[in-house]
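Lab meeting, item 3. Inverse folding demo.
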């Protein structure tokens, strides 16, 4: 069962709750018993993990990419003559 703290308690014990989250404990903060937010640990990405451009050179985009299938699409919307 996930722990839940009310807002007043979370404000009073913020430092301790941050420490708990930092070591992996997940909990919710509630207002009048209604869960408002879930607190989870921040996990930084590995420095050597490359995301943008990871498929560079793996495929080619045709020069007419933005107009590919244009005639067929027009026929589908306007109907064939």
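The presenter then showed the designed sequence:
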């Amino acid at each position: 069962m996930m722990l839940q703290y009310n807002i007043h308690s979370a404000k009073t014990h913020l430092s301790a709750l941050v420490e708990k989250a930092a070591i992996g404990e997940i909990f919710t903060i509630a207002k009048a018993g209604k869960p408002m937010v879930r607190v989870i640990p921040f996990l930084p990405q590995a420095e050597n993990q490359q995301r943008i451009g990871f498929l560079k050179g793996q495929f080619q985009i045709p020069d007419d990419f933005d107009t590919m299938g244009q005639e067929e699409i027009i026929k589908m919307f306007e109907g064939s003559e």
